[in-house]
Design a protein that fits this description.
Blueprint: E1 5-6, E2 8-10, E3 13-15, E4 22-27, E5 32-38, H1 42-59, H2 64-80, H3 82-93, H4 97-118, E6 126-129, E7 133-141, E8 144-148, H5 154-167, E9 171-175, H6 182-194, E10 201-203, H7 208-217, E11 221-227, H8 230-242, E12 246-250, E13 255-259, H9 265-277, E14 287-293, H10 297-309, H11 329-344, E15 348-351, E16 372-375, H12 382-385, E17 392-398, H13 401-409, E18 413-414, E19 416-420, H14 424-433, E20 438-441, E21 456-457, E22 460-461, H15 466-472, E23 474-482
Parallel strand pairs: 1-5, 8-9, 8-11, 9-10, 11-12, 13-14, 13-19, 14-17, 16-17, 19-20
Antiparallel strand pairs: 2-3, 4-5, 6-7, 7-23, 12-22, 15-16, 18-21
The protein binds ligand TXE.
């Protein structure tokens, strides 16, 4: 299998990295390399930028209707290849194939459809300045967009950037995570098959420090959309700021889930177990701090542990698996570190806390970790403040609304939160006070592609989604005509 070589896609062609170097691409479920990924560098980025620059002239003049047709064709091809893509993503990431098939890949197609049609409904503003002038706003493509994405939802998050950038008539130099390069590689084939002109979408594979840093530092790439960790986000922001780039950063989270005693207990249990452990806790929106009102604390913790202990861990390619592998050895070690730290900080491991028995012989060296529940931690400690990004949740009791709001906000992140209560007034009251870009009430991860999406504090800068994305990938120009 390691003869599969994931190459760059530049100017409509698959090409070797100029250095001819490749990295092993490890399958998380087995711990073994299953393909090779181009270990590109700044010279490949230069070649991609040259292609994107050359393509921009014509592409930026293609009618919106034609761009929409191309994006819709890509969406149809993703649907056609759903099974192939889901399997590839499951192998690449370690996530259960059912999750790829039902969530990640269909949503990638939905992203292309959403922005294909959104671009047809854009309105331009006009402002009449008394009897002096008429102003109108032109929204024009910005040029070359640099798109950098992470490993947790590789095709979904990359398409969430590619689709609006193309819809707005930009050209692209994209870099998927070196840990999960396969679906971006497959997407290039589909874009080619759909008839996307050469140079409009370029994908350079490789590591963050070599390819990602070259993209953020490239003077001809004036727009950067990045999703990843906060530490990397800071580097991207610093490099981009020096060149006055327009930057959107979607970073980490340490999201609170708040359960009141008046919640629908069954719904809150199912919702919070899902929020804690979806994709082995490797979703930036996962709830990793769970606050439960004292009156139902014992009953809730009991029910939560019961449900979490029944999640079926297994080979990601097994149809019945609900918890797959952790994306990499490094990430697994990070999770282990935090579980040890939690114990040193006074926490009690109420469930999990270790690697499970390997589910089968194929997976004996895979990166697995049990769903883990920690109780007894003080609200402010490192385990409750730092992003772990794994199947680890800390459950704590609270007494009052005021107290739980202060716990929820006592954090440097502010990406999302979910609140479980039947009291509508309280739900609105709390939603207003929580410092987070998204507040879910009696649900989690319910996404409407039109809503602004992004984080507060160290969870990011800027908003993606719907209108926000169309604004991000265009430059507003005012034309003022004197009367
Ligand atoms: O992510 P990185 P890593 C969090 C999570 C995880 C931690 C580190 O807590 O444990 O981040 O994960 C590219 N210039 N999240 O190291 O490095 C990199 O190649 C430009 C949260 O795997 O942030 C990849 O394509 N780019 C998160 C992308 O940045 C650089 C999802 C993200 O990788 C770069 C992933 C550089 N100097 C991790 N260095 C979320 N919020 O969804 C790396 N990259």
């Amino acid at each position: 299998m390691t003869e599969i070589r994931i190459r760059n896609f530049i100017n409509g062609q698959f090409v070797e990295p100029l250095s001819a170097q490749y990295l092993d691409n490890i399958e998380p479920a087995t711990g073994e390399p299953y393909s090779q990924v181009a270990d590109s560098d700044e010279h490949d980025v230069d070649a991609a930028v040259a292609a994107a620059e050359e393509a921009f002239g014509e592409w930026s003049r293609v009618a919106a209707n034609e761009r929409a047709k191309l994006l819709l064709r890509i969406a149809d091809l993703i649907d056609r290849d759903l099974e192939k893509l889901a399997r590839a993503e499951s192998i690449d990431t370690g996530k259960p194939i059912t999750l790829s098939r039902t969530l990640d890949i269909p949503r990638a197609a939905a992203n292309f459809r959403f922005f294909a049609t959104a671009i047809l409904h854009v309105q331009n503003e006009a402002h009449v300045t008394d009897n002096l002038a008429l102003n109108y706003t032109l929204r024009q493509p910005r040029g070359i967009a640099g798109l950098i994405s992470p490993w947790n939802l590789p095709l979904y998050l990359l398409s969430w950037k590619i689709a609006p950038a193309l819809a707005c008539a930009n050209t692209i130099v994209a870099k998927p995570s070196e840990l999960t390069p396969m679906t971006a590689f497959m997407l290039c084939e589909l874009a080619h098959e759909a008839g996307l002109p050469p140079g409009v979408l370029n994908v350079v594979q490789g590591t963050g420090p070599r390819v990602g840093a070259a993209i953020t530092a490239h003077p001809k790439i004036n727009t950067i959309s990045f999703t990843g960790g906060t530490v990397t986000g800071r580097k991207v922001a610093e490099a981009g700021a020096a060149l006055f780039k327009k930057i959107s950063l979607e970073l980490g989270g340490k999201n609170p889930t708040i359960v009141f005693a008046d919640a629908d207990l069954n719904a809150a249990l199912s919702g919070s177990v899902r929020a804690s452990f979806a994709n082995q806790g490797q979703v930036c929106l996962c709830g990793s701090r769970l606050y439960v009102e004292r009156a139902i604390y014992d009953e809730f913790v009991h029910g939560f542990i019961d449900k979490a202990s029944k999640l079926k861990q297994g080979d990601p390619l097994d149809e019945s698996t609900e918890q797959g592998a952790i994306v990499s050895k490094t990430q697994l070690e990070k999770i282990r570190f935090y579980v040890d730290l939690a114990q040193r900080e006074g926490g009690n491991i109420a469930l999990g806390g270790a690697a499970p028995e390997p589910p089968n012989a194929r997976c004996r060296d895979g990166f697995f970790f049990q769903p883990t529940v920690i109780t007894g931690l003080p609200p402010s400690c490192r385990t409750n403040s730092e992003e772990i990004f794994g199947p680890v949740v800390s459950i704590m009791p609270f007494e009052s609304e005021e107290e739980v709001v202060s716990y929820a906000n006592d954090c440097e992140y502010g990406l999302s939160s979910s609140i479980w209560t039947q009291n509508l007034n309280r739900a609105h009251r709390i939603a207003e006070q929580i410092h987070a870009g998204t507040v879910w009430i009696n649900c989690w991860l319910l996404r409407d592609l039109r809503v602004p999406f992004g984080g507060m504090k160290q969870s990011g800068v800027g908003r993606e989604g719907g209108e926000e994305a169309l604004r991000f990938f265009t430059e507003a120009k005012n034309v003022c005509i004197a009367k």
